[in-house]
Specification:
2 copies of one chain form a homodimer. The first copy, chain A, is mainly alpha-helical. In chain A, about 70% of the residues lie in helices and about 0% in strands. In chain A, α5 runs parallel beside α8 and α5 runs antiparallel to α9. The longest helix of chain A is centred in the middle third of the chain and has 27 residues. Chain A is elongated. Chain A starts with 5 loop residues before the first helix and ends in a 13-residue tail after the last helix. Chain A binds a DNA duplex through α1 and α3.
Chain lengths: ~210, ~210
DNA sequence: CACGATTTGTACCTCCAGTTACATCCTTGC
DNA sequence: GCAAGGATGTAACTGGAGGTACAAATCGTG
C-alpha cells in the first residue's frame, strides 16, 4: 500500500459513505460487512484491503465526519456567526431527521450510544468529534461575548454543550416517537433558554 | 403454560433482571443469549420457555421497566411533588451514571437508540415508557400551575419533554466523554431554564 | 400417591458475521 | 511497455448467535 491510486480512493470513499449511511440508519452492530458491500457495490476483498477490520472502518467513518465538520462539507452547517445561524443549526437537525421520516436519530449520537467500556478507541473518536462541534459553537458564543452581545453568568463551553445535548436528546425522543413536533418543541425551548443570554448591543455611545 | 409457578416466576424474573442490566451495559444487539444465561444462571431451555425470542425478551424487559416506574420501584424516583424533588430526579440520573463509572447511558435511551424502522413493537414499548415518565413529570407541573406556582408561557407536557430530552442528551454526552462534569453542567442549565417558570406563591391575601 | 402440567437439561441445527488466503487483474511511474 | 505493487474476485474457514427438539425431572393438587 504505497501509492493509493485514484480508483482505490474512489472505492474507499464509496465504502465509507455506504458505511456512514448504514451506521446512521441502523447502528454499527446491526450493520454487516455484507450490507456494506452491497450498498457500496464492492466485494469483500476491497473492504479488507482498504480497512483493517470493521472497527477500523468505524474509526475511518468517524474521522471522515470530523473532517467534514471541520471543512464545512457536512450535512449540517457548523459555521455559526449569528443568532439566526444558531437557530438554523438547530432546525437543520430536525430537517435532517424528517428527511428520513423520523426513523433515524443523530448520526453521531447513534454511534455514540453503542460505545461500551471496551471501545476505547471509538469513544475517543467520538469525544474528539463532539469537541470539534463544541468548539464551533463555543466560538460563536465567545465572539458574541466579545461584542458585548452575551449576558454574564454562563461560559461559552457550557452553552455549547447545552446546544449539543439538547439536540441529542431531542432527536432521540423524536425518533422514538417518530414525531417531529416533539423535536420542534424541544428546540424551541432550547432556543428560548439561550435567548435569555442574548444582549442587544447598546447604542454606540458610552464605551464601557 | 397454564399456571406459572413460583420457581418459574423466580427464573423468569432472574432472566429479566439479567437482560435489563446487560441491555443497559452494552445494548440489545451486543447482548447474546449466552451472556443472559450466564448472568442469570439459567439454561437455554428456560430462556425460550419463558420468552418467545430475544425480541420478546426485550419487550418484557421494557414492560418491566414501565411497571417499575408506575409502582415506584425503579432505580430512580419518579414521584415528584416539589421543585427539590425535581432537582433530585435530575441528579439521580447523574448518580446512576456515576455508579457505573460513567460507562453507561440511560437504560431506556440506550435501548431507544438502537430502534430501527423495523422494530415497530419495541418502538411502541419505548413510546409508552416515555409517556409514562412524561406524565409523571407533567403531573407535577400541572399541580404547580394549579397552585399558582408556575408562570405562563409553557405547557406542562412540553416542560416534561424538556426534562426528558435534556437528561437523555446529557447522559449520552456524559457517557461519550466519561465525564460527570458534563452531565452536572447540563443538568444545571436545564434546572436553570425550568427555574424561570417558577413563581413563588403570593402571600395569601387577594384570592384570584 | 398419582397424574398432568410446568420446568429444566442436553443435544443439535442452521445461518451468517467477520475474517483470511490466494490468485488474478489493473495502474502507473519509469 | 513493463515490472512492482495496488485493486479486485473467489473461495474458504471459524465461531458464535439465535433457535428447535425432545427427554427427564419436578411440582402441586386431588
Amino acid at each position: 500500500m504505497r501509492t493509493p491510486s485514484m480508483k482505490g480512493k474512489a472505492t474507499r470513499r464509496r465504502i465509507i459513505d455506504a458505511a456512514a449511511d448504514l451506521f446512521h440508519k441502523q447502528g454499527v452492530q446491526a450493520t454487516s460487512p455484507q450490507q456494506i458491500m452491497e450498498t457500496s457495490q464492492t466485494g469483500k476483498s476491497q473492504l479488507y484491503h482498504h480497512f483493517r477490520s470493521k472497527g477500523g472502518l468505524v474509526h475511518e467513518v468517524l474521522q471522515h465526519h470530523i473532517q467534514s465538520i471541520r471543512e464545512g462539507s457536512a450535512a449540517i452547517d457548523y459555521e455559526i456567526t449569528s443568532w439566526s445561524d444558531l437557530q438554523r443549526w438547530f432546525r437543520a437537525h430536525a430537517g435532517l431527521q424528517e428527511k428520513y421520516r423520523m426513523t433515524r436519530g443523530c448520526p453521531f449520537g447513534t454511534i455514540g450510544n453503542e460505545v461500551t467500556e471496551n471501545d476505547e478507541l471509538i469513544r475517543r473518536d467520538l469525544e474528539l468529534l463532539f469537541e470539534v462541534v463544541r468548539n464551533k459553537l463555543a466560538g460563536f458564543f465567545l465572539r458574541e461575548r466579545t461584542r458585548g452581545r452575551l449576558g454574564p453568568g454562563a461560559n461559552e463551553a457550557a452553552l455549547a454543550d447545552f446546544c449539543i445535548s439538547s439536540i441529542q436528546g431531542a432527536m432521540l425522543l423524536g425518533k422514538i416517537r417518530r414525531d417531529r413536533g416533539t423535536v420542534d418543541l424541544a428546540i424551541d425551548q432550547a432556543l428560548n433558554y439561550l435567548a435569555g443570554f442574548r444582549r442587544s448591543v447598546p447604542r454606540r455611545r458610552g464605551s464601557a
